[in-house]
Amino acid sequence: MSTPLGPAVPSGPLYLDGVREDIVAPATGARTALGTDPFETVVTIDPFLERLDSLHGGGVVPRRSRRERPEPHEPPIEAPPPVTRLREATAPPKRARRAWATTPRLGEVELDAADGMLERLIGEGERRRLAAVGHLVDGDAPYDRYGLSPGTLRAAFPFFHALYRFYFRVKSHGHEHLPAEGPAILAANHGGLLPFDGAMGILDVLLHTDPPRLARAIVDRWAGRLPWVNVFYARVGQVVGTRENFSDLLEDGQLVLVFPEGVEGIRKPVTQRYRLQRFHVGFVEQSLRSGAPIVPMAFLGTDDQAPILFDVKPLARRLGLPAFPITPTFPWLGPLGLLPYPVSYRIVYGEPLTFHERFGPEGADDARLVRYLANQVRRTVQLLVDRHR
Amino acid sequence: MTNVLITHADEPLGLRVVKTLFPDPRVERIVAAGAGPAPRAFDRFLAGSPPRMSYLRVDLAKHRPVADLFHSAHFREAEIDTVVHVPSHGPGAGAPARRSVMPLVSGVPPRTAEARLVLQHALDARSVDSLVVIGSAFVYRLAPGNANRVSEESELNLDPDLPGEIRSWIDCDMIFHAEVGSDRARVVLLRVPTVVASGGFVYLNPALAGPGGPRVRPLGFDPLCAVVADKDVALAVQAAVHGKTSGVYNVAGAEHLPLSVLGRWTRRPTVPVPASVLRAAAFAARVLRQPELRSSVEGPHLRYGFTLDTRRVQRDLGFRPTHRVGLGRAGDGRLQLETSPA
Description:
The complex is a heterodimer. Chain A is of the alpha/beta class. Chain A has 2 domains: 21-69 and 77-90, no CATH class; 143-305 and 340-388, Glycerol-3-phosphate (1)-acyltransferase (3-Layer(aba) Sandwich), CATH 3.40.1130. Chain A is built from 14 helices and 11 strands. Chain A has helices at 46-56, 83-90, 117-121, 124-133, 150-167, 196-207, 221-224, 229-235, 243-251, 263-266, 282-290, 313-319, 355-359, 367-388, and strands at 21-23, 41-43, 171-173, 184-188, 216-219, 239-240, 255-258, 294-300, 310-311, 325-326, 346-349. Chain A has a 7-stranded mixed beta sheet, with helices on both faces. Chain A has a two-stranded antiparallel ribbon with strand order 1-2. Chain B is of the alpha/beta class. Helices cover 30% and strands 24% of the residues of chain B. Chain B has 11 helices and 17 strands. Chain B has helices at 12-21, 43-46, 63-70, 73-78, 110-124, 164-177, 230-242, 259-265, 275-287, 291-297, 311-316, and strands spanning 2-6, 27-34, 53-57, 82-85, 130-136, 149-150, 186-192, 194-197, 201-203, 215-218, 224-229, 247-250, 256-258, 270-273, 307-308, 323-329, 335-341. In chain B, the strands form 5 sheets. A 7-stranded parallel beta sheet of chain B has the order 3-2-1-4-5-7-12, with helices on both faces. A 4-stranded mixed beta sheet of chain B has the order 9-8-11-13. In chain B, strands 6-15 form a two-stranded parallel ribbon. In chain B, strand 4, helix 5 and strand 5 form a beta-alpha-beta unit. The radius of gyration of chain B is 19 Å and the shape is globular. At the A-B interface, helix 7, helix 8, strand 6 and helix 9 of A face strand 6 and strand 13 of B.
């Protein structure tokens, strides 16, 4: 059987909850193509969904522990009531559509005269976009509730814009998949030691949306402990990844950029380049709860900007760092060795995945379902990476 | 009609609560209690025949005076049905006290002792059916980061090594939180962040509270602080007094300011100091048993900021902040923090 997202899968055991998992191990000594995970857990979507439909008429399977699984001689389990009815009973009361934090369209932005040196460095179009993003801060307050400062954003923009145009020479496509308004989660692959992919992604979204949207990247808690870095991240709109922060951003209708691989993505060795690591699942939970679509996003070029030969984990642990990489330039050139090579970036946006429409907010309570959906997102991003490499 | 007892009415927040509740037509009588003499601002409230308000000097950290207050003729005649407890936020209120013979208040900071005594007597008093308490929002466990969104369900910081000032707020919070579901009285706990008032006054912030002057903060950290105007705190108390629900509510204003900006606006400039120096100072304060010094150089509030999710208080109590916080020019020409109606 061929699946919409993956290759054909050999027949195997179909578990009670409908998820068929087959571990495809590589043959001894066989080489695998870059970009494919030899130990990937292949999960077929069709039998799972068929099973769901047969049980519930299209809905969520209640979790059952192994102990609760019936023996073969037991009579078949009764199907629970259709999920449509369950949803009606448990659905929260309908409420008026929330006023999302939005920015005006480019044509509606009133632009002041360029009086500062920084403002003269960038074009009118970019200035217009930055002015529009300033509307995210309520009223006359200088900061929003996550510490975003439009002034700092304006000051940092020329530097990152120069990196975007001249250093990384970013090319991107698939912008039509970015929603013009409302909450959405951008799920991307991560790589390259220093998170320039996040900065370039945010800039790309800002430069290719109308009304301009500022993606709020979820950063690792480790970054929140770093002096200066934590302040800079907050001032340019990045947010530490706590549940409350994440759900509040989505509730506010913002675009949230996540790297579900976490630090595993940036510290993977060069032999693993463009192979996505295991995804964390929190973003799927948040997507289901908030009804935000997941837009898969692929970064190409990031894994070549700082090829890691080894990660000296004991030393990293000793120093309290997420990784201590050995690259062709680090630690031989000191901190300068951490700077990325001038590789060319490509950013590709995929079609939004609307799991929330099928599984609803109650699906977020099913750990197996959430893990399964996170794997599906991972496969989708991996496909984007493989197709455009 | 409601008859209200307000504790610590002689401190700025208590004073503001009295000023807000006195003109409220739904409040019939007010009994104000405080440790010091009646503030001069109360002169016009205490006048009139019969007066709608009376003021009593009570040391709320001691068992006998509190018992006397709740059994006094003033309390009985006023038929108090609502107690508004405004914990002391003066310097030293969170520092451990010398040992007392009373087990209920033995060796605990005055603020915690007051919370225990007020709760015990309010629940024992037959006429009291509502207890409204102002607590601090600095009770939450903060994740590393410049700003964290916290809701009422967020985890409290139960780290035993916390500075005494924050520790006492957490103790008070837990004391009242335990009675939120009580059948004996409706308990409303309002968690407020840094409270600011016109003129550059600031309360409840462990780093900035107290007299003006420079403060320290770790180099490279500038946490975002949620702020609320003192008038909005009083309005939230008013909404809670007339509300029908019990529970824990976050109360905050619309503005958020980094600690450095807030310090500058309130004439308490923060000086960035290397973390290693602060660690040494905290160690010295611990050895020398100087809890106030330790509070001012150590604690998560100096590194990590937070803002509050206030949807619950908007939904249940109908409270929305009505005052904006900004910079105004004082009479002498200096810029300072001001609050004004939105």
